[in-house]
Design goal:
Elements lengths: L1 E6 L3 H12 L4 E5 L5 H5 L2 H20 L17 H25 L3 E4 L2 E5 L2 E4 L2 E10 L3 E3 L10 E2 L1 H4 L8 E5 L3 H12 L3 E5 L11 H13 L3 E3 L9 E4 L2 E4 L2 E4 L2 E4 L3 E3 L3 E2 L5 E2 L2 E2 L12 E3 L10 H15 L13 E3 L4 E6 L2 H6 L4 E7 L4 H6 L5 E7 L5 E8 L2 H13 L4 H6 L9 H11 L6
Helix pairs in contact: 1-8, 3-4, 3-6
């Protein structure tokens, strides 16, 4: 009899399993494919590795002479996709091996195979019945396939970094941060890129200010965005390398499907309530069946890996008797665009709709010495604070390392800090993170270097 059986070994599942093992709970994790799930094997890690490769390529191409480096013949430079993929594969192998080691180190049984929930207290895996007190489903999500009309053109995210031949003209579907990351990735490889979405905006859940900044950035990068253009056969014609959509002709040799996703629902002999393709859960990630939980992408709350991990930890703590509130607003959102973008807490639109008397304080990277020294001074930091108490309600950052810097904001939000706390937090100089202190001063009175 297990205390917990976890189905799926992505960031939501394996983090929950390791924590459960550390807490002395008898735990099994079931995986039908590779340990680490989509994120480690085909998504987050390989994509971020490839993004870093193209960033380096672009910096050498555009900035070497400006930084005082002679002798580089930029006309001879080219991006080697195969070698960049090999580097990514090495990182993936090391990380997935590390996760498997940690699972075993903490006494977690790793069971390979397809899982089927046979009751609230049992899971069947390849004719082996696992009895358990609790079940955590952490099976992730999958992109909704495009119509068969385009099947010869379409590459799904899971297959993208297996490609060994990248053509010159690429269409990326979708409007999420991942869609934007992929569009910029291939544009920095000097490919022709068009972003096509059925929505009327990009970056859902992002503050409007960040969204507008990124729209402007994509335009600067010469990535065309076509809105309100669902990629379905009645709206689209593809012939001889040209995609006709919404009255426009787009060169297209490859379509990357980064559009809507659906939860990877598992076989079950019991009825677990589903809503719009995802398991419906309560504030503690418990499904409609008592003792059966769903964490990560499969519950549709968020598609960020770290939020899936946070949900997994929350459930394990709950089962061990540690009761806490899991507030999604207090968890950061990362966007690995170029430059990076991140936010936490309330957006300005949410602060307004919730009736706060708020203040917006902004400080630009263009006034920061370290950012200027690094040659990457595009971006800003915005604080949204309550005028009466000065409490920090939300933070938005656009900066080269915004996805790292947002963690400082996460501490402020968790501790219900005020702008006075931020202003009084001394930051080392010169660092990009000084923009926090400057924005704090701006909120209290006036920034020093503005």
């Amino acid at each position: 009899m297990y205390d917990i059986v976890i189905i799926g070994s992505g960031p939501a599942g394996y983090v929950a399993a390791i924590r459960a093992g550390q807490m002395g709970l008898k735990t099994a994790i079931v995986e039908r494919d590779k340990i680490g799930g989509m994120c480690l094997n085909w998504g987050c890690i390989p994509s971020k590795s490839m993004i870093e490769s193209v960033k380096l390529y672009q910096r050498i191409l555009k900035d070497s002479a400006r930084f005082g480096i002679d002798g580089i013949q930029t006309g001879e430079l080219s991006f080697n996709w195969d070698n960049a993929i090999k580097r990514a594969d090495t990182i993936v192998k090391r990380l997935t091996g590390g996760v498997e080691f940690l699972l075993k180190k903490n006494g977690v049984d790793i069971i390979k195979g397809e899982a089927k929930v046979t009751s609230a207290n049992s899971v069947l895996v390849e004719n082996r019945l696992l009895e358990t007190k609790n079940i955590i489903i952490a099976t992730g999500s999958t992109s909704v396939p495009l119509e068969n009309t385009f099947k010869n053109l379409v590459v799904e995210p899971k297959e993208l970094f297996k490609q060994r031949n990248i053509p010159d003209n690429i269409v990326v579907t979708g409007n999420t941060p991942v869609s934007i990351e992929l569009a910029q990735l291939f544009r920095m490889m000097e490919k022709g890129v068009t972003l096509v979405t059925s929505a009327d905006h990009i970056m859902p859940k992002a503050d409007d200010y960040i969204r507008q900044y990124m729209e402007s950035r994509l335009k600067k990068d010469k990535i065309e965005i076509i809105y309100n253009a669902p990629l379905v056969s009645e709206n689209v014609v593809w012939k001889d390398g040209v995609l006709e959509i919404s009255g426009k002709s787009i060169k297209c040799d490859l379509i990357i499907n980064s559009s809507a996703r659906k939860g990877n629902l598992i076989k079950s002999d019991i009825e677990i309530e589903v809503n719009e393709g995802f398991y419906r859960v309560d504030q503690d990630c418990e499904t409609s069946v008592k003792g059966v939980f769903a964490v990560g992408d499969v519950n549709g709350i968020s598609q960020f890996a770290h939020i899936g991990s946070a949900q997994g930890l929350h459930v394990v703590n709950l089962l061990k008797g540690i009761k806490q509130k899991l507030d999604i607003h207090k968890l950061p959102m990362n966007m690995y665009s170029f430059p990076e973008a991140a936010q936490i807490g309330l957006t300005e639109q949410e602060a307004k709709s919730e009736g706060y008397d708020y203040k917006v304080s902004e400080f630009p990277l263009s006034a920061n010495g370290k950012a200027m020294s690094e040659g990457q001074s595009d971006g800003f930091l915005r604080l949204i604070s309550d005028k009466k108490l000065g409490e920090v309600l939300g933070v938005q950052i656009v900066a080269p390392n915004a996805t790292d810097m947002i963690n400082e904001a996460s501490a402020y939000i968790q501790l219900e800090s005020t702008v006075y706390d931020i202003a009084q937090t001394v930051h080392t100089h010169p660092t990009v993170s000084e923009i926090f202190m400057e924005a704090g001063f701006e909120a209290v009175d006036k920034a020093i270097h503005k």
